[in-house]
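Regression test case RT-17, inverse folding.

Input:
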């Protein structure tokens, strides 16, 4: 094959074209090898006293509930209250027909008067027999019979007095009164109904609404933390006793205006839920809280001294579920820092160990960074940030 000059000219042109195509690719590779320093947002840590708040769920529970029941048999003569209103202890609610019990009282009083008169006669007779018996003017048998009759009549008088008391008590029971103060329910019995002492259902129910209980469901782990703080004396005291204030939030999200106070905790935990019931008490003058209402309770457990508030987006967990954050050192490189979490406070974690004054904590998409990575730090906390390639 003969190689001519035109062949070399044509070959050089095609080779030059091929090199021109490869040069941009080589430039891209060099540009990729060039390190990009990403922007990283951070917040500066400062120790502070953090109030410890625990938000839990609970139910409103009445302090006292009393069934109104008849204590005598009879027809309901009248009802003396309005359903759904507040009643006070001792207020008359119903009137049972009193006439049969009034008659029983009068009969018991009549028998008592008769036996008392008989006793008086026997006592006078026995007093006369005393001197005569010593002179043998009265037989010993007559004297002993009179003495025995007097003792028997004395016993009858005592029984009559008890019968009168019972009759008076039954007559009083015809006036059915409120055993406690509170709000009364609807009336099951109406005027003219026959009521019985042994009937199964109450005729009305009274519920005490002021003050009222709040039964708060607390995990046992949280309870152990509270007991530890009580033991360390980190909770405030009121009148020598531990005082844990409780703020209440109603179902519609509104705040209840009066603060509750924690009373006690049950000594038995629920095995299925791993929780215990804590009971608080609160005033309820406007009857806004009703038994059975769902409520959210915020317990003020005290203050954590020299703690750090770390934004929740800055905290990550490793495969062992241990929390850590990235801090930016003086050379603007990232360091992994293990921390100890106390609890959440709104959008922050309360950190008790692992942080120190002046630490710069990475908050901008920390999962997109790596340990020892170089960054361009910018102070601030925003929901958006630069994500490195």
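Golden output:
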């Amino acid at each position: 094959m003969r190689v001519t000059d035109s062949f070399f000219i044509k070959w050089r042109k095609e080779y030059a074209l091929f090199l021109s195509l490869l040069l941009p690719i080589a430039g891209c590779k060099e540009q990729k090898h060039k390190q990009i320093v990403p922007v990283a947002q951070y917040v500066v840590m400062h120790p502070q006293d953090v109030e410890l708040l625990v938000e839990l769920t609970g139910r409103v529970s009445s302090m006292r509930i009393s069934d109104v029941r008849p204590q005598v048999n009879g027809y309901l003569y009248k009802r003396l209250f309005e359903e759904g209103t507040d009643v006070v202890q001792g207020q008359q609610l119903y009137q049972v027909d009193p006439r049969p019990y009034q008659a029983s009282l009068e009969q018991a009083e009549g028998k008592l008067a008769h036996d008392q008169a008989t006793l008086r006669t026997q006592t006078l007779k026995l007093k006369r027999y005393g001197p005569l018996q010593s002179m043998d003017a009265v037989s010993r048998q007559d004297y002993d019979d009179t003495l025995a009759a007097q003792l028997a009549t004395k016993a009858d008088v005592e029984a009559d007095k008890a019968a009168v008391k019972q009759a008076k008590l039954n007559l009083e029971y015809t006036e059915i009164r409120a055993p406690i103060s509170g709000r009364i329910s609807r009336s099951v019995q109406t005027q003219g109904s026959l009521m019985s002492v042994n009937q199964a259902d109450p005729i009305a129910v009274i519920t005490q609404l002021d003050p009222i209980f709040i039964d708060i469901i607390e995990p046992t782990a949280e309870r152990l933390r509270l007991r530890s703080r009580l033991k360390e004396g980190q909770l405030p005291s009121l009148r020598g006793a531990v005082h844990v204030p409780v703020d209440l939030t109603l179902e519609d999200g509104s705040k209840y205006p009066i603060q509750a106070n924690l009373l006690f905790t049950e000594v038995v935990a629920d095995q299925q839920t791993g929780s215990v019931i804590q009971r608080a008490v609160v005033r309820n003058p406007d009857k806004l809280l009703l038994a059975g209402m769902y409520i959210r309770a915020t317990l003020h457990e005290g203050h954590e001294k020299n703690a750090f508030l770390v934004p929740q987006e800055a905290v990550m967990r490793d495969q062992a579920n241990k929390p850590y954050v990235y801090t930016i050192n003086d050379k603007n490189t990232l360091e992994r820092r293990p921390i100890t979490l106390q609890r959440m406070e709104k959008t922050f974690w309360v950190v008790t160990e692992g942080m120190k004054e002046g630490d710069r904590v990475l908050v901008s998409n920390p999962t997109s960074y790596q340990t020892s990575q170089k960054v361009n730090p910018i102070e601030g906390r925003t929901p958006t940030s630069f994500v490195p390639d």
